[in-house]
Design a protein that fits this description.
single chain, alpha/beta, Rossmann fold, hypothetical protein PF0899 fold, 3 domains, five-stranded parallel β-sheet, three-stranded parallel β-sheet, binds zinc ion
């Protein structure tokens, strides 16, 4: 049986690895090509869009897919809708990986709205400073609220051409720059070298993208950035074999166990800084 998993999440990759270990199941994972999960996993993978619902229908028929599993990001509402429609047209079963909802607890004060636009609409009069932890694609919905300051959490940077709300984009790059500034002790920094493990939940490209902006107005302004990527390595807890990894999980190719201990590849650190020594 051939199964198509719409992926791009850690959950999807774990599901793909486990499903492909089941005899008689052939797994194909589809990735939009946007996230860290595009890093190669050891199953058949295709990258890129399908070309709408019609394209997905054509693909399902062409590849004779018997089951479609939607394991995309919870914010990827469009692809989920297309997946459901395409599966229905093709008459094949369709599963959706649904994560548990947040449950209100006693002291919580929740205000429920129907969508992002409605959330943006009620903010004026409610708060002056707002923390947004939403998909980066949706930040622009809040950009028109000029009287509100936003703290925005983002692992990947938003695309350069979309409007984002005023405030601060909080991410890993800011943290790195802050640490480097502290160590520079007011001396101008010429170069920063980072070590980033392949299994760390951060894309080198995302850091490169934000670095210059984050350095602005600090002793790191104008510094060059060098990134050393470290390949992932795990040790099998069952048989002791060493397994190269490109994802923070995997399967032992010697004994088939998924009980792996990560040996290398989790790094995210400043390895070196070149400082302009003004006294020299
Ligand atoms: Zn093993």
């Amino acid at each position: 049986m051939r199964v198509l998993i719409l992926g791009g999440t850690v959950d999807a990759s774990q599901l793909a690895i486990k499903a492909s270990a089941i005899p008689g199941i052939e797994v194909i994972v589809s990735l939009a090509g946007r996230t860290r999960q595009s890093a190669k996993i050891n199953v058949q993978t295709r990258i890129g869009g399908f070309g709408g619902t019609e394209g997905l229908v054509a693909y399902l028929q062409d590849k004779a897919i018997a089951l479609l599993i939607d394991a995309t990001h919870p914010y990827a509402a469009q692809i989920s809708f297309k997946a459901a429609t395409a599966a229905k047209i093709c008459g094949i079963p369709h599963l959706m990986l649904v994560r548990p909802q947040w449950q209100p607890t006693q002291a919580d004060r929740w205000i429920e709205v129907d969508n992002m636009e409605a959330a943006a609409a009620i903010l004026p009069g409610l708060a002056k400073r707002v923390f947004l932890t939403i998909g980066r694609q949706e930040l622009s919905t809040f950009a028109y609220l000029e009287d509100i300051w936003f703290l925005m959490r983002a692992i990947d940077p938003p695309e350069a051409n979309i409007p984002i709300p005023q405030g601060q984009l909080f991410g890993i790059t800011q943290d790195i720059v802050a640490i480097a500034v502290e160590h520079a002790q007011n001396l101008p920094v010429k170069r920063v070298t980072l070590e980033i493990g392949q299994l760390a939940v951060v894309m080198p490209d995302a850091i490169r993208f934000c670095f210059d902006v984050c350095c602005r107005g600090t002793v790191l302004e104008g510094a060059s950035l060098e990134i050393l990527e470290i390949a992932g390595l795990a040790k099998c807890r069952q048989c002791g074999a060493e397994i190269p990894l490109s994802e923070p999980f995997g399967i032992c190719d010697r004994c088939g166990s998924v009980d792996l201990e990560i040996v290398r590849g989790n790094e995210l650190k400043i390895k070196e800084m070149e400082v302009d020594d003004l006294c020299a």
